[in-house]
Automatic annotation (TrEMBL):
Residue ranges of domain Peptidase S9 prolyl oligopeptidase catalytic in the record: 452-651
Gene3D superfamilies the record matches: alpha/beta hydrolase, YVTN repeat-like/Quinoprotein amine dehydrogenase
Pfam families: Peptidase_S9
Alphabetized InterPro entries for the sequence: AB_hydrolase_fold (IPR029058), Peptidase_S9_cat (IPR001375), WD40/YVTN_repeat-like_dom_sf (IPR015943)
Name of the protein in its database record: Prolyl oligopeptidase family serine peptidase
Alphabetic keyword roster: Hydrolase
Length: 666
């Protein structure tokens, strides 16, 4: 396998496929943060497009669209990070990239026009209007702060012109590593409100005099796992600690009247992915209400009014939205669907008016679209499908929910994509999600590299949601704690067995892939089962001991393994793929990003070493500019192409498996 794969037929195939689906020349293929007001004629959102070439990667820009739908208009030329609409709907706050890599801009907009702008040092990760619309808070990450795994898991670095040989020096301290809250009133420069040793991960206005923050006493990415809830006085900057959750929490939202703070509490594996219990803290009494949300694992919340909280989330295979009325102490489900989902990393929607919501919807064969929901009715405002995308996806099989029973009797759910017109058993690719506290959903292209291309070539794809996944309640998610690589392993293997038993899958042609936790499982499964003919771990963990000592999130493995990284035995040894040979030689393609700090590149090297020592063919592919999960461009196309080549080479087409097993040339 060559370093330069661009001349291969697989690269041409992957590039052409994604070029058709994503479009070029400024076509908006994805959107987030759709927001609006009932009295406004227009809605705003952040749209992604490839403005030049696919190799240059996508750009995020500010757009607006009429409330009644139709064409949309791009409003700016800067990389846009966050937008937030004032409560009265009159002013839009926009956080975007500054003129140099070390700065960001905060702007206010009205009637397609930027009214005011100021610059801050660092990266603006969150913005929020005060209830009276007079002030903005900004959560700003220092210029050297680490990004969360879902955003690449690497350390930010400003562009510095210096001698190439000079070393990088890491001290573990520095003002540029912290996250802080800034206040801006729209005229003078923003002023710093919080300072080290307080690190603010999230913030929200709680009335007009205080700000509720998710904060910890250290800047390290792993300190998020023990963050607490505090109130910051905007006049003095004084801090009052008010709640310490048993596990993790996030998505803090202060009530407009300042009487309550709502948030989501959950057992979590990743900052930015919080799925669990809606919790409402009464700031007067200190009591916490944890209402019934109709079996929905909540993933996003917004105050619809001073007494109603809008929420979105997942319940099994369903994506759902609803409202919780504090006065009636009752939740009402407004919409749920197996056929559609919404939100970027997890289900999310934005309340508008007394009952409506706005969201960006999608499904496996349906490109993202802007939508307004009123009750059970979904009105499409605009489709983001490229011209030839529907036809291309029509050849990539169909998705359906799938359930099976694990060896211990627990029902496990997931999704299966089946190729069109097949009657005989097909090869199978198992794609394991990250986390592990996450879940596969009915997402466009399944949001995984190569899978839809393989489906068009006759492969079945299994997207399992083993124990530890979201959407099944706290006990199901918590079942992976202390047992990662245990019962969840059997959940996945039993899913493969269920597909084989149905006659859908050829037992001799099963491959596994995944990123992060999915990368770990892709390296681990061949050491636990003979089911697999090929493995493609991406950003994996091979050795939990070295992972703990080199990762930006050592707290993660201590929580998940419930063992000591200082002991000579226990889960740090017994659940490390690199310490176990594959049951039989399984051809293994390992891929990783060189600047990944969530699962550092050494983990991929250990997985590659272990595969080779098992007697298997193995290739190690390291992308020098890529972070966690290798999501950038053109690395995404290249990695997809290498997956196609690896599976075509080692998981032989029908009629060639027997010859390959006998050592004959195919």
């Amino acid at each position: 396998m060559n370093s330069d794969f661009r001349s291969s037929s697989e690269f041409a195939k992957a590039y052409s496929f994604y070029a058709t689906l994503l479009g070029s020349g400024g076509h908006v293929f994805h959107a987030r943060a759709l927001c609006g007001h009932t009295e406004a004629e227009h809605l705003h959102f952040i749209g992604q497009s490839f403005e030049t070439t696919l190799e240059d990667g996508p750009s995020s820009r500010l757009y607006r669209i009429a409330r009644e739908g139709g064409a949309f208009t791009r409003l700016n030329d800067r990389e846009t990070r966050q937008i937030r609409l004032s409560a009265d709907g009159r002013t839009l706050a926009v956080a975007c990239a500054g003129d140099d890599p070390a700065t960001d801009r905060i702007e206010t907009w009205s009637d397609e026009r930027c009214l005011t702008a100021q610059t801050v040092a660092g990266r603006i990760e969150q913005i929020d209007w005060s209830p009276d619309g007079t002030k903005l808070l900004l959560v700003v990450a220092g210029t050297g702060a680490d990004l969360a795994g879902i955003h690449g898991g690497y350390a930010q670095k400003g562009k510095v012109e210096t001698a190439a040989w000079l070393p990088e020096v890491r001290l573990g301290e520095g003002e540029d590593l912290w996250r802080s809250v800034w206040l801006w009133e729209g005229k003078e420069a923003p002023r710093l409100l919080t300072r080290p040793p307080l690190n603010v991960w999230e913030a929200s206005w709680c009335g007009t005099g205080s700000i509720a923050v998710v904060a910890s006493d250290h800047h390290s990415e792993g300190s998020w796992y023990s963050a607490g809830l505090s109130l910051v006085d905007i006049a003095t900057g004084g801090l009052t600690r008010i709640h310490q959750p048993a596990d993790q929490f996030g998505y803090i939202r202060g009530a407009p009247d300042g009487r309550r703070a709502a948030f989501i509490e959950a057992f979590c594996s990743d900052r930015g992915l919080v799925s669990g219990q809606l919790s409402i803290l009464d700031l007067t009494t200190g009591e916490i209400e944890r209402p019934d949300t109709l079996g929905i694992d909540v993933t996003s919340i917004e105050w619809r009014s001073a007494t109603v909280i809008h929420f979105a989330g997942a319940r099994g295979h369903h994506t759902a939205t609803g409202d919780y009325d504090l006065e009636r102490s009752a939740a009402t489900e407004s919409w749920s669907s197996v056929d559609l989902t919404n939100g970027e990393w997890a289900p999310s929607s934005y309340p508008i008016g007394e009952h409506g919501t706005l969201f960006v919807g999608e499904a496996y064969a349906r490109a993202p679209f802007l939508a307004e929901q009123d009750g059970a009715t979904i009105r499409e405002l605009a489709s983001l499908a490229a011209a030839d995308a529907p036809e291309t996806m029509s050849r990539c099989g169909a998705i359906e929910p799938f359930s099976w029973i694990a060896p211990d009797g627990l029902e496990i759910q997931g999704w299966v994509v089946r190729p069109q017109g097949v009657t005989a058993p097909t090869p199978l690719l198992v794609d394991v999600h990250g986390g592990p506290i996450s879940a596969h959903r009915n997402r466009w292209l399944a949001r995984t590299r190569a899978a839809p291309i393989l489906a068009s070539q006759g492969w079945t794809i299994l997207f399992p949601n083993p124990r530890g996944s979201t959407g099944r309640g706290d006990a199901f998610a918590r079942a992976v704690k202390g047992d990662m690589g245990g019962a969840d392993t059997q959940d996945i293997i039993s899913g493969v067995d269920a597909l084989i038993a149905r006659g859908w899958v050829d037992a001799k042609r099963v491959a596994v892939t995944g990123t992060s936790y999915g990368g770990f499982m892709s390296a681990w499964l061949p050491s636990q089962s003979q089911r697999f003919a090929a493995a493609i771990p991406i950003s994996p963990v091979g050795d939990w001991y070295s992972q703990h000592r080199t990762s930006q999130i050592p707290e993660f493995d201590e929580i998940m393994l419930e063992s000591s990284p200082w002991a000579a035995d226990g889960a740090y040894f017994s659940r490390s793929p690199a310490f176990f040979k594959q049951i039989r030689p399984v051809p293994t393609l390992v891929m990783a990003g060189a600047i990944d700090k969530s699962t550092p590149v050494g983990q991929a090297e250990e997985c590659h070493f272990a595969a080779l020592r098992s007697g298997a063919p193995s290739a190690l592919v390291i992308y020098p500019r890529a972070g966690h999960s290798v999501r950038g461009y053109p690395e995404y196309f290249d990695s997809a192409a290498r997956i196609l080549w690896w599976l075509d080479t080692y998981v032989h087409p029908a009629g060639q498996a027997d010859a390959a097993a006998n050592g004959e040339e195919s």
